[in-house]
Structures are given as structure tokens and as C-alpha cells.
Amino acid sequence: MRQASTQSASWQVRAPFVLFLVVALAAPMLLTTGFQLRIVSLICIYAILSMGFNLLYGYAGQIAMGHQGFFAIAAYGYALLQLKAGFSPLAALPVSLLICAFVALMIGIPLLRLRTHYLAMATLCFGLVISGVANRWIDVTGGTGGLLIPAITIGERTMDRTTLYYVIVAATAVVLALQNFIVSSHLGRSLQAIRDDDKAAAALGVNVAVQKLRVFVLSAVIAGLAGIGFAVVSRQVSPSMGEFPILVSMLTIAVVGGLGTRYGPILGSIVVVVAPQFLARFGELETLVYGLCLLLFLIFMPHGLSGMVRSLASRQRTGFARSSPPRLPKRQHVKKGVGR
């Protein structure tokens, strides 16, 4: 019985992952325009960004509001390494992620001593600083005009849009698998213990400061990877990548998809990226309708789409268990003369 329940729980984790891969890999065959392919690419990019935030806030309980800064730092590093230092795209990718990790380590050591809204305000100020530098350091960042990124070339061939899409899907799958592994591992359990009560976690032997710093740096690197993906798809880097709308989109994805869930970032990204395309018909009322929909979502589905899917699945299992006839115990045949 225990083995069957373990296999069922394992399949509940793997089935959505397989479904995501099948749908994502088949998407270019079903889409008809390059704009639609760009929309699906943005869904994957925002899912990567939100998975880093989900690990930090959803599982570790650290309210950090500066991920848009790392989103921009990695993108600018990726562009400047190619334009100023002559790096190839493949070499600029890991170096820009290392720069992002170093910055996260340097600010994480002092800032993670803060808690709750103090940490949120400090990290939000960090994001504002990055946006201000990107706007005003015109000689390096290009100011409000930003920087143009050259197309990715492999040998003498330029990577086309479909190949780039598959690369982004592969990156999303790797980050999703990494998130699921962390959540199921000892690190994930220690992060959840810190989220619930960091003093109790420390009493149980968890090194709270080290674990907070680890997940902070990891989430910053994941946000940086999403920033590079966004820059490559857009073919440019601009200060808007480090501004407040990116943070709002990330928080909205966390609310809509479900905070502290494995597949909430993907579900939330689908809604946040696709919904404005349908709401554009409302014209000037688009923002009002969008905000009203989010308000209704918070009232009627406070646990997000993942919570709704989980509750529907549990109801279905309960209904199936009630409809199936109970198993009668096997009759024991007692030989004559035994027990007399």
C-alpha cells in the first residue's frame, strides 16, 4: 500500500512535467505566425523568472522585491560582454550569470539579516538603483535607448526563431527540473522549515543564514537566465527590464499560479502573458478590467490555479473512492477439528 501511494505521488509530480514538455515541443507545429511563437517564448521566460522568485519567497519565505534588478544585470552583462569585450554568445552566457551570482552574494550577505518588510524594501531599493544606473550611465548602457544584441550564430549559421524557441524551452525544462529536485530534497525541506519558523529550524540544526544565502543567489541566477532569454528574444536590452512593471508581472504570476507550488509559475505565466492579448479590445479600459479580474481571482481562488487544480483532483479521487464498491475481506477457511 505504501509503495503504491509513493508511486502515485511520484507520478503526480512527473505527469505535469511531461505534459509541459509535450505541449511546448509541439507548439511550433501548431502556431501559424512568428508573433504567436514569441508569445509562447515569453511564457517560458516569465516562468523561469517566477521559478526563482518561487524558490526564494514561496518555499523559503524571504520577501525579496529586487529580482527585476538581476533580470537586468544579466541581460546587460550578456550584451556588453559581446559588444565591448568581444565574447561569443556561448561564452557570454555563463560569465554574465557568474556576474549576477557575485552581485547577489555581495548584497545578500548584509541584506538577508533583515526580515519581512525590511527585506522587501531593501531589495526594492536595489532594483531601483539598477534601473537608475541603466538610465543614466549612457556611455555604457546606452541610456533609455538601450543596447542592440547581435543575432546568435553557430559557426556560419544564424540561429532562427524556431531553434531559439527550443533552446528557451530546454532552459525552462532544466530550471523546472532543478526546482522540483530542490523542493523534494533536504534543501527544500530546510527552506520550508525556515519559512515556517526560522528559530525552530535553527534549533533543529539548520544553518539558517547559509541556506538563505544559497537560495537567494540561486534565485538571482535563475532571474538572470530569464533576463538573458528576454534580451535574446527581443534582440535588445533596455532600462525597462529593471523597472517596476517586471516586478508587478512576477508578483502577479505568483498570485495567479499559486505561491509555493511546483507548477504555479508556468500556469501563472500563461495567464499573465496571454491575458493582455485578449484584453486589448477594451482599449483604455484594459488596465481597469485587468485589475478587476485579478481582484476577483484573489477573492475566489486565493491559492491560485495550482490550488484549484489540486482541489479538483482531490475531489475526483474522493468521488472515485466513494463510487467504487468496498472490498470485502477474504473468508478464512478453517479446517475441521482445528480450534476446538
Automatic annotation (TrEMBL):
It is found in: Cell membrane. InterPro entries: ABC_transp_permease (IPR001851), LivM-like (IPR043428). The keyword Membrane applies. Residues 328-340 have a biased composition (Basic residues). Its main location: membrane. It is a multi-pass membrane protein. One of its GO terms (molecular function) is branched-chain amino acid transmembrane transporter activity. Pfam families: BPD_transp_2 (PF02653). One of its GO terms (cellular component) is plasma membrane. The keyword Endoplasmic reticulum does not apply. The chain crosses the membrane at residues 12-31, 37-57, 69-87, 93-112, 119-138, 164-183, 215-234, 288-309. Keywords: Cell membrane, Membrane, Transmembrane, Transmembrane helix. PANTHER family: HIGH-AFFINITY BRANCHED-CHAIN AMINO ACID TRANSPORT PROTEIN BRAE (PTHR30482:SF10), HIGH-AFFINITY BRANCHED-CHAIN AMINO ACID TRANSPORT SYSTEM PERMEASE (PTHR30482). This is Leucine/isoleucine/valine transporter permease subunit. It comes from Caballeronia choica. The lineage of its organism: Bacteria, Pseudomonadati, Pseudomonadota, Betaproteobacteria, Burkholderiales.
